[in-house]
Amino acid sequence: MPNRRDMMARSAAVAALLAGAGVLPARAQSAWNKAAFEGKSVDEAIKGLGIAKPVESKDIAFTAPDIAENGAVVPIAVSTTLPGVKRIAFLVEKNPTTLAGVFEFTDAVETSVATRIKMGQSSNVLAVAIMGDGKVFYAQKDVKVTLGGCGG
Amino acid sequence: MKQRHAAAWAVSVLAVTGCLASAQAQTSTADGIAQYRALLADGNPAELWEAKGELLWTQKRGSKNLSFETCDLGKGAGVMKGAFVELPRYFADTQRVQDLESRLLTCMAAQGFNAAEIAATPFGRGEQVNLEALVAYVSAASRGMKFNLPQGRTEERQMAEAGKRLFYFRAGPYDFSCASCHGEPGKRIRLQDLPDLAKSPGDGVGFAAWPAYRVSSGELWSMQRRLNDCYRQQRFPFPGYASDATIALGSFMGVQARGAMSIAPAIKR
Amino acid sequence: MSDPMRIRAQVQGSGAVVRVLMSHEMETGQRKDAAGKTIPAWHITEVTAALNGKTVMTAQWGTAIAKNPFTQFTVKGAKAGDKISIAWVDNRGDSRTDEVVVA
Hints:
The structure holds three protein chains of three kinds. In chain A, 19% of the residues lie in helices and 38% in strands. Chain A is α+β, with helices and mostly antiparallel strands. Chain A folds into two domains: 1-30; 31-145, Immunoglobulin-like (Sandwich). The model of chain A is unreliable at 19-27 (pLDDT under 50). Chain C is elongated and about 55 Å long.
């Protein structure tokens, strides 16, 4: 008679197999935040994320180029010493939809991430750090774009 | 601690790419562009093509069920290291000077594919996609090496001379030649610096920077594709894929680039 | 069938730096084709990163993440031999998981 531990191990193995085969969703995440991603302004994105209005912080190190040769690919990186950061969101003020992405951190990773975004035109880019206690901070960088990355 | 980590990451990327501009003092546009390129140097999407090329290289393909391990790119069958920086060169089996794409077509023909059909296939379709991957993979094997095209044979010298003449040949509705954009130092289109290809433009520039992942189209462009697009911009008829004219231009530019370090596959606007 | 991701996980200090290159079109839904028809949005919506099977980071992405996206993050306490797996799901319901051993 298989004990509970064996059953758990076996179902985990099966789940991993199914997940690997693309049958299961990658993880039981909360549903994709449509309201936030459809926000057409910083305020709408903030509202969609359900967070407080962000306060500027010097403790968020936000790296982005002064000029992006092509708005289709703009490298950005954020890292912060603020304790208790649960999520970091990237907002591009002048994009058709402002929210580019949200990263959610467990204690097993450093609160730093680098990625690449698209910018439709020169714009302010915001890195918003959302704390576990509800406080929200941000850093921003003005990035000039020489070629639009959304259409042409 | 974490701020230092991010700064160290940015600085190490800048250092690795040899960029001298400080991450802080972005006073000029050129510095800004250099910083942008440095930030993109790590994690070049061209690696996705390299990975595909790696799989294709050892895969038995075509009606003859052969892999590229039997393909001689100039350094012996299946030898990739150093091959890219010596192309175009003369090949005894085909008795002609060939560039990388042309030589890959020869090897694909040996696998049983129809080379003419592949040459006629539009970029980004069918076997052209595999050619992109193979070009990325083969060029990566010579990354960091200096161009050293052989010029010992008459055919090789003739191709380079033909390429030189094509380089300066003015035609089309705008009376452009390659030299119109690439024949003098210090030229640019908007913010895009135009390398002077009439002489060696230096390490990782011009001929030494292709194939490359082009951010603007999100595609990997081989030298053949780059030349094709140059011809389009000059409003010339498109050259045949891997035709002698394109090989000649590659020979001329490659000979000019001798001693320059290849950074292919690179990343470009 | 999507192309494999390129994942590199290297020990650095007390953790591991993970760099991921994904192969995905990340179509914004803003572009029109030659006939003038809008090309529908097609993009990764969720990303999950796991260390030895345990989720360490997740992300939700919109259309403004670049094509063939590159992401870098640092996993605390990861050692050589640990397994890093990255999974993505897109808005068409396609998904992909790739894994790599920390070097």
